[in-house]
Amino acid sequence: MRLKDRVAIITGAGSGMGRADSLLFAREGAKVVVNDINQKNIDGVVKEIEGAGGEALGYKADVTKMDEVEAMVEETVKRYGKVDILVSNAGWDELRPFLHTDRGFWDKILNLNLLGHMNCVKAVLPHMLKNKYGKIVTIGSDAGRLGNPMEAPYAAAKGGVIAFTKTIAREFGRANITANCVCPGITETPLAEQMISAIPEKEKALKMMETVRKVTPMGRLAKPEDVAGAVIFFASDDSSFVTGQVISVSGGLSTP
Ligand SMILES: NC(=O)c1ccc[n+]([C@@H]2O[C@H](COP(=O)([O-])OP(=O)(O)OC[C@H]3O[C@@H](n4cnc5c(N)ncnc54)[C@H](O)[C@@H]3O)[C@@H](O)[C@H]2O)c1
């Protein structure tokens, strides 16, 4: 078991990639704090984990609110005594041409997709420092490495997540805390479906998805489980001397 007796907080764990990470981590022996803003989905994932014989604690908190994040971390430490792993995964976007975005939309996107990660990392670090052990995995996006039309504020936030993660890696390496960033390409999750169905020109969006599928060397889009495989590498001691790194999970669509 790769995560035996480890305690992991996974944000945005009620759906998509966070759910897949939670199920995999629990199978690998971790006690998983399943965080989301959707209580019904939290309960569903906790039930799945417990049904498979794993250990989980559901915790509803909004990662954009520091007081809620801090309360979640305190509850985790109270329940399990420590926090070994943070998978900072919660995120959201809506495809919009840049000129159709405004300051209100930028604030919403940056609050969740950049500052939400900073809240979570700041809240777990004191506990990781105390134990001289920590594995921080942020979920970025290939949009943040490469840029992507109709995702300017989101790409800016995810680019920020990459730079933030590298900085945490440099600042906390001597405390035996690693920080790495997983950047998925298009992944078949409820978010991707939502983003496509929100576009007025659906035909165009579906055609674009088909083109991405065709030009991807591995000939398909990612599944949440594909991403979870990269996340658990960075969350486990398999990556004991790997920090400040960014990995693209995109079937070879983008190469460094
Ligand atoms: N799906 C893709 O194509 C894709 C590609 C690249 C990167 N990503 C990133 O991957 C991560 C996971 O996305 P997904 O596709 O699994 O999405 P998803 O919508 O399936 O899951 C995201 C979860 O985050 C939760 N969430 C949203 N706001 C929250 C908040 N403020 N606090 C706590 N939880 C919150 C949602 O309720 C949802 O359950 C996100 O960071 C996303 O930006 C997704």
Please give a structural write-up:
With 256 residues, the protein is an alpha/beta fold. It has a seven-stranded parallel sheet with strand order 3-2-1-4-5-6-7, sandwiched between helices. The chain is built from nine helices and seven strands, in the order βαβαβαβαβααβαααβ. Helices cover 50% and strands 15% of the residues. It has helices at 16-27, 39-51, 66-80, 103-131, 142-146, 152-172, 190-197, 202-215, 224-235, and strands at residues 7-10, 31-36, 55-60, 85-88, 134-139, 177-184, 246-249. The relative contact order is 0.14. It binds nicotinamide-adenine-dinucleotide (NAD).
Task: Round the mean pLDDT to the nearest integer and report it.
Answer: 96
Morphology: globular
The total domain count is: 1
What oligomeric state is this?
single chain
Percent in strands:
5-15%
Distance between the termini: 31 Å
Please report the first level of CATH classification, the CATH class.
Answer: Alpha Beta
The tally of beta strands, per DSSP, is 7
What percent of residues adopt helix (DSSP H or I)? 40-55%
Largest sheet entry: 7 strands, parallel
What is the CATH homology-level superfamily?
Answer: NAD(P)-binding Rossmann-like Domain
Strand order of the largest sheet: 3-2-1-4-5-6-7
Count of helical stretches? 9
